[in-house]
Amino acid sequence: MKTLDLEKFNPTKAELTILAKKYKNLKIKNIGDKEGYLQVNTARKELSHIRVNIKKAGKALRSEALTFQKAVIAKENELIDIIEPLEIELKEKQKAIDDEKERIKRKESLPERKEKLQEIDVKLKDDDLLLMDDNCFYEYLNGKKQEFLEEKERKIEEAREKIEADKIKIKEAQDKIKLEKQRNIEMEKAKKEAADKAKLEMELKIKKEKEDAEKAKQDDIIREQKEKEKLEKQKKYQTFLKSNNYNEETKNDFIIQREENKITLFKKIDEIKI
C-alpha cells in the first residue's frame, strides 16, 4: 500500500525558518538606497519562488492523498460487504426474539392499556396495541386524551350554547304568550268598553226615546189641554157674544176690546159724520 510522506515538502520547516530570519531585518533606507532596494527585491523573488514550489508540492501530495482516500474507501466497502449482510441477518433474528419478548411483556399491560383507552372512549385492536412500546402507547394515549378533552369541551360548549339558545327561545315564547295575553286582555277590555259604550248608548237612546215619547205625550196633553181650553174659551166667548145679542146682523153695533185674557164688549150708541 502506498504511504503518504509529508517530508516530501522541500525545503523543510527548519530551512524556511532560517531563511525567514535571514531576510526579516532587510530594509530600504530611502529612495536613493539602491543596494538595500536590490537586496529586498532579490529576497522577495527567492521567497516567491520557494512559495510557488511549496504550492506545487502541496497540490501533488493532495492528489496522491485523494487517490489513496478512494482506494481506502473501496477496500473498506469490500471488507464490509463480506460481514454486513450476516450482521443484519443476526440483528433481525435477535430483534425478532426481542420483539416477541416485548410482545409477551406487553400482553400483561394489555388490560391496563385497554382500560385507559376505554376511559376516553377509544377502542383499538389487541394486535395494534401489542405493536406499541410504552413510549409509543403513551404518546398515542396522550394524543387521544387531548382529542377526547377537546371534544368533551366542544360538546360542553355546544350544550351550553344550546341551553342559552333554549333559554332565549323559552323567553321569546314566554314574551309571545305574555304579549298575546296582554293583547287578549286589551281586546277583551276594548270589547267590554265597546259593549259598555254600546249598552250606554242604547240605554241613552232608549232613555231619550222614552223622554221624547214622554215629552211628546206631555206635549200632546198640553196641546189637547190648550185645544180644549181654546175650545172652551171659544165656546165661552160665543156664549158671551150670544148672551149680549152679538151676531152677524148686530156685530156692527158693538166694539170688542181685548186685553190679555180679558174681553170687553161695548155697544155703540150712535155715530155721526161731521
Task: List its traits.
4 helices; single chain; mainly alpha; two-stranded antiparallel sheet; 274 residues
What's the structural blueprint in terms of helices and strands?
Elements: H1 13-24, H2 34-119, H3 126-130, H4 134-243, E1 254-259, E2 262-267
Antiparallel strand pairs: 1-2
Helix pairs in contact: 2-4
Distance between the amino and carboxyl termini: 205 Å
How would the global form be characterised?
elongated
> Stretches where pLDDT falls below 50 for ≥5 residues?
none
Give the structural class.
Answer: mainly alpha
Rg calculated over all Cα atoms: 74 Å
Helix proportion of residues, in percent? over 70%
Spatial order of the strands in the main sheet?
Answer: 1-2
Overview of the molecule:
- This protein is mainly alpha-helical and 274 residues long.
- It has a domain at 6-107.
- The chain is built from four helices and two strands.
- A two-stranded antiparallel ribbon has the order 1-2.
- A hairpin with a 2-residue loop joins strand 1 and strand 2 (262-267).
- Helix 2 (34-119) packs across helix 4 (134-243).
- The longest helix is centred in the last third of the chain and has 110 residues, at 134-243.
- The N and C termini lie far apart (205 Å).
- The model has no long low-confidence stretch (mean pLDDT 84).
Please outline what is shown here.
This protein has 274 residues and is mainly alpha-helical.
